[in-house]
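A favour, since you know our structure tokens better than I do. It will help me judge whether the discrete encoding reads sensibly. The space below this message is yours for that.
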Amino acid sequence: MTLTNAIKLTANRVGLLETNVSFRDRARDYLNISAKRIGARAKWNWLHKAATFNTTQSMTVSSVVGTFEAGDTLTEGLATATMDASYDATNAPTTFLMTGESATAFTADNSVTTSDASATVSAAAADTQTYQLAADVLTPHSFIDQSNNQPLGIVGWDALDLADPDRGETGDVDVVTIEGVDSSTGRILVRLYPIHSTSGDVIRYRYLAYVPDWTSSDDSTELDRWIPEWLQPALIFGATELYKQEKGDYEGALIDRAEYEGGIKSALDINLNVQGNREWHRGRVGLSSPYLPQEGGLTAAG
């Protein structure tokens, strides 16, 4: 089912024509809300994801002429580097994120160029301290320094403040802290400790995702990309419930709420069995249960 099909079903069930642009947009809004409600209902297996980012060096520039892009080769005299894929030309065009730097360092007040763009270096390149995670991250789960085969712990601010008050220690990363969200993009920020002093290393992380808002540009896209087929009916009933409430059809909204809950219940049962014949045990972590009887803790029934 495409988003267009879902919009049509939502509008028609409320008694509206999907050909009306206002009705279509409203139906899409309610589908977005319904998707958020579904995503927050459980730790769905289909929202478990993994992604990576590269450690980088950061450099601030000014007086940008032309367009810099990820993958560009940056040159300043004998200094060279590659613009990392995480470079955000829209929200942070004057913050260069680089990997593969040459032995010669970039320095302030000189001109950095590509084949069709130039800028003035405002501050010399330095190891990046914070990194943005993927746009659909709801809650990070775990981190691994993939390049060095090293699992990374997640610690709170207090632990980091005690270990490195001035945020100046460098080396191979041991732990990660969650730093909030980026003020321009809203993406979750993480800080590596110590500051990772080798650019180009790969940090892999697992996370629980959410479904980002759909726009009209997504209308022709299959919903399977975001929500599995067995939950798509619940998505629509969740949207029609809200739309009917807006139109004053509270009885119809209650009917659709019941249909929504029925779809959610079935999906929750599927979610429990996604890994086949596994069994849930209290206190399970890792591959085996740590809950072990102590000597003398069990006695035979009389």
Q: What stands out?
A: The chain has a mean pLDDT of 91.
